Amino acid sequence: MNLNATLIIQIVVFLTFVWFTKSFVWPPIVKALDERAKKIADGLAAADKAKADLANAEKKSGEELRAARESASELRSGAEKQAARLVEDARAEANRIIAAARDAATAEAGAAAQKAKDALRDQVAVLAVAGAERILRREINAEVHADLLSNLKQELS
Amino acid sequence: MASGTELAHGPTPGEYIAHHLTFLNNTGEPQAQLVNWGLVNLDSLFYSVILGMITVFVLYRAAAKATSGVPGRFQAAVEILVEMVADQAKGLIHSEQSRRYVAPLALTVFLWILLMNAMDLLPVDLLPRIWEGIYASAGHDPHHAYMRVVPTADINVTMGMSIAVLLVCLFYNVKIKGIGGWAHELISAPFGDKLILAPFNFLMNIIEFLAKTVSHGMRLFGNMFAGELIFMLIALMGAAWTGVNASSILLAFGHVVAGFAWAVFHILVITLQAFIFMMLTLVYVGQAHESH
Fold first, then answer.
1. Closest residue of A to B98, CA-based?
2. CA B236 remoteness from chain centre
3. Does the beta-carbon distance from B38 to A28 stay under 8 Å?
4. pLDDT digits (tens, 9 = 90+) for B10-35
5. B56 touches chain A (CB under 8 A)
6. What ipTM was assigned to the predicted interfaces of this complex?
7. Which long-range contacts (CB under 8 A, 24 or more apart) does B39-44 make?
8. Is A35–B68 a contact, with Cβ atoms under 8 angstroms apart?
């Protein structure tokens, strides 16, 4: 353990290395560390904000969903009402058509019956004349007895 | 922890230890006087500068590639060290501006001393033996091929660093308190601000500075010197090899066991001493900031 000039040189060497570290090593590393700390802090803040935003959006979407559901049910009940009305109208129209058809048919049937009756009546007169002719075995002048026949026709109607 | 058995007429244990404890200075001869300012220990300075350059180079690589994004493992490792030192400095030195100089100082000191101490873990004969070969092939007497590889086992190195720390402390004393304020503190603390007490106060402060600096350097030196010496003593066990016989085998076995155990224990000493030196540096500089 002898002292010599190594001591002095070591002081200079020491201070030189310290100067180097202080100038070129420490500042960039500490800067990087501080920047990262800031980044992490910012990131955490952003995450908190995003969480709050998400909660807001969820609330908003819930509200809109409810509003949409309400308007949809309104629409549906309107549509149902309209459909019911349409069915009702259709039913009334159908009834009307059926009634008209029935009336027409009845009228037609009545007319046909009348026509048949008329034809029948005409023939009955001929038949009656022919019958009477046979019964009486004599000629009856149709023109002479027209009044009689017309009376008979009247009675048959 | 190789041994010197290769020599045909090996040195005696005393010669072996003495040879290993001699520095390579600019004269090539062992230093005879206790203090000689004309001599320089080339081996201590060589290893000290090389290891210091490795330290700052590694740190510089980390600093040059430092990113605030996701760090790699290397960057993270350096950052852990930086944070550790920065935290300690924050606790001991309350001036932000001083920390900008003192914290890098502490980081340099810690890593550099760690590396210098770690030279102890190399086999005690490895580098000296290589140097002996070089020295002999250059045509010199291999018995004068001195080489000590642990710079912190050289009191010049450790005292040099502790004196550098003292200079930093004195600088901050003057910077923080002003030359007048500091001078006043030197003669008024710790006993009291009275004229009659001034010489005692002054003496006490000088003793305090001396004791701090000397103990700072001597603590590191003592630990590393003792560690190195014990490695040499362990190496003597293997050096006692005389052929395949019971005592030689037993000693060689003891060499391996003791060498392993001491090396493992020494890992703790190396780290602890580097950390203590760094912490005391911070404490002393911190004290320079406080007025009594």
1. A22
2. 25
3. no
4. 678 888 888 888 888 888 888 888 88
5. yes
6. 0.88
7. B39/A2, B39/A4, B39/A5, B39/A6, B40/A4, B40/A5, B40/A6, B40/A9, B41/A4, B41/A6, B41/B148, B41/B154, B41/B156, B43/B146, B43/B147, B43/B148, B43/B149, B44/A6, B44/A10, B44/B148, B44/B151, B44/B154, B44/B156, B44/B157
8. yes
